[in-house]
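Marked as duplicate of an earlier ticket. Keeping the data here for the record.
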Amino acid sequence: MVPVASQLPFSGRAPSRSRIGRGGSLSRVIGLVALAAAAWGSAPSLAYAGVNLAGAEFGEVAPGRLGVFGKDYTYPTAEEVRYFRRKGMNAFRIPFRWERLQPQPGAALDPAEASRLRAVVREVLAAGAVAILDPHNYARYYGKTIGGPDVPISAFADLWARLAKEFARSGRVWFGLMNEPHDMPTETWLRAANAALTAIRSAGAKNLVLVPGNHWSGAHSWTTSDNARWMAQVRDPGRHFAYEVHQYLDRDSSGTHAEVVSPTIGSERLAAFTAWCRGRGAKAFLGETAAPATAEGRAAIRNLLLHLQQNSDVWLGFAWWAAGPWWGDYMFSLEPKDGKDRPQMEYLREFLRPG
C-alpha cells in the first residue's frame, strides 16, 4: 500500500455507484448476509485465506535515507504470525521496500534487511502457512519507474534472480512480483514481468509467481483496460503463475472510504475478471481486499468471498488488507486491539480453518 504515514490502500478507479443508506436498507443488508450464509454451506472452500502483515513498507525512502528499523518501519513478529494462524489463516503477504532490501540496483541484497525478511518467512513456514513476498513499490525504485532510463528492466529482473536464489528451497514461498504497478505503459510492465519470470526460472526456482497487471492491478477495470490485452501475453518458462489483483468495495475501488457501494459490489466487480481468467485456463489470487466494520461492510465482504469460493477453479484465495502493529485505529486493521479481536475477524471466521 501507499508507503506514507496514512498507509491508505489504492487499487485503481471505478465508476461511482450509489451507496447504501444508513436507514431502511439495513434489513436488506441483513437479508443478504443470511442468503450468503446459506450459500456458504454448499460452496467449495478456498485453498488459501490470509492477511497482509504490513510494516516493512512503511516510511519514506531516498538514496542514502532508507529509514531506521524500529522507528520508521518494522517487520511482522512471530506472535502476529501465530495469532493469525490460530485463527485459520494460511497465507501471509509480506510487504517490503525494494530500496531497503537492495539499496543499489544490481548489487547484493542488504544483509540486515535480508535477514529480517528471512526471519519472517521462517516463522510463516514453521506455522505451516504460505509466505508471499511483496516488493511494495508500485513499479518504482527510488520514485523512478521500472523500464524508464533510470531503472532498466534488467534491474528488476536482477532483484528477482537474487530473491529466487534465496527462497527457492520452499514451494510455500510465493513470489509476488510487484505491488500495484500504475501510470506506466502496460506493455512496459508486461516486459518487466516476463523478464522477472525468466530470471526466477533461470535461478532454478519453481515457486508460484503472482503476476499483477498495470493500473493498480484492480480486478474491476481489468477487462475494460489494456490489461486484458497485454497481460494475456505473460510468458512463464516454468508455467507456474497466477494473476494477482486487488479489489476494494468503496465508490472508486480505492479502499480509502468507509462506505461500501452495495452488498453485491464485490461479486459484480470480480465477475468479468473471473470470466477472463477462466477463458484462458488461468488462476488468480486476490492480494488485497477489505471492508469496514459495519453491517453493510460485512454483507459486501461475504458476497465477495463467496464469489471466490464459488469460482474456486479460478481463485486460489485472498489476503485481507491488513494487519501489523503500527496501524492504530485504521478502519481495516485486523491487528488485535487491547488483546481483543477486531470486528472484521468475525466476518472472516466462516471462511477460515482454525488451527
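See parent ticket for discussion. The two ends are 29 Å apart (CA to CA).
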